[in-house]
């Protein structure tokens, strides 16, 4: 199987690239860090090819990805997180986060979609943060809510072409991104667990791959509560942090 993964130089994307390569699949690992890409290729020189890619660069992203004409599985992982400081509220922070998590992800779709064939799979990684309003997560959670809605719409619009679109919503995963968090992260899982759960979900064509299961079920249930209850619950999370 030919697989293309963005955000492959760290965290979930890197672990997915390593796991698929170890299983003998051909992987195009995309990321900004050239040194990290080289290290990945050196681990699996026969099956991993590196593609330096900055998804905030519209022209080069689309141009580079258009060159991949035989891809069976696309996993769009690349993303960023910044938390809002209410004392120094800055709309530019929203622009930065949405530029990567939403617009950049859609640039990847723009570049790859013309060459995806019937039976291909497009996997877009969001977050469980979309399910509940968390303190300081206006930009990150908002971007992940947007990308989840877009993914669900793509599931409908690409069905006629025979392209399966799957949504991934991780909880807290031990990655360089979450290492920066200074608050409690309930039910945090290892990056190895995350990659294995995602791979199993992709293999079974699950439209909604949310993990860890208990945390996901809790947040999905919470998202169905009256809004006043949701706010009360979010306050408790904030105070606990």
Structure overview:
The chain has a single domain (2-240), classed as 3-Layer(aba) Sandwich (Rossmann fold). It is built from 8 helices and 7 strands. The protein has helices at residues 11-22, 34-43, 58-66, 91-112, 138-157, 191-203, 213-222, 227-240; strands spanning 2-6, 26-31, 48-52, 73-76, 121-125, 164-170, 208-211. It has a 7-stranded parallel β-sheet with strand order 3-2-1-4-5-6-7, with helices on both faces. Helix 5 (138-157) links the parallel strand 5 and strand 6. The longest helix is centred in the middle third of the chain and has 22 residues, at 91-112. The model has no long low-confidence stretch (mean pLDDT 93).
Question: What Rg, in angstroms, do the CA atoms define?
Answer: 18 Å
Using the coordinates shown, work out and report the CATH topology. Answer: Rossmann fold
Question: Which architecture would the CATH scheme give at its second level?
Answer: 3-Layer(aba) Sandwich
Strand content: 5-15%
Report the mean per-residue pLDDT as an integer.
93
The tally of beta strands, per DSSP, is 7
Spatial sequence of strands, sheet with the most strands: 3-2-1-4-5-6-7
CATH class: Alpha Beta
Total domains, how many? 1
As a percent range, the share of helical residues equals 40-55%
């Amino acid at each position: 199987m030919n697989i293309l993964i963005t955000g492959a130089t760290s965290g979930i994307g890197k672990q997915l690239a390593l796991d698929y390569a170890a299983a003998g699949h051909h992987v195009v690992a995309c990321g900004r860090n050239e040194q990290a890409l080289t290290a990945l290729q050196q681990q699996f020189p026969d099956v991993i090819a590196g593609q330096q890619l900055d998804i905030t660069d519209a022209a080069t992203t689309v141009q580079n990805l258009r060159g991949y004409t035989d891809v069976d599985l696309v996993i769009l992982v690349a993303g960023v997180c910044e938390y809002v400081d209410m004392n120094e509220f800055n709309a530019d922070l929203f622009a930065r986060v949405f530029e990567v998590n939403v617009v950049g992800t859609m640039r990847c779709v723009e570049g790859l979609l013309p060459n995806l064939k019937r039976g291909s799979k497009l996997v877009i990684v969001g977050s469980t943060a979309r399910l509940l309003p968390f303190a300081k997560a206006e930009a990150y959670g908002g971007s992940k809510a947007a990308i989840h809605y877009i993914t669900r719409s793509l599931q409908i619009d690409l069905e006629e072409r025979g392209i399966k679109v799957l949504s991934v919503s991780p909880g807290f995963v031990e990655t360089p991104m979450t290492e920066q968090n200074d608050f409690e992260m309930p039910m945090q899982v290892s990056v190895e667990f995350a990659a294995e759960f995602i791979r199993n979900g992709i293999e079974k064509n699950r439209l909604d791959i949310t993990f860890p299961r208990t945390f996901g079920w809790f947040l999905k249930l919470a998202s169905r509560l009256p809004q006043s209850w949701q706010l009360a619950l979010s306050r408790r999370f904030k105070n606990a942090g």
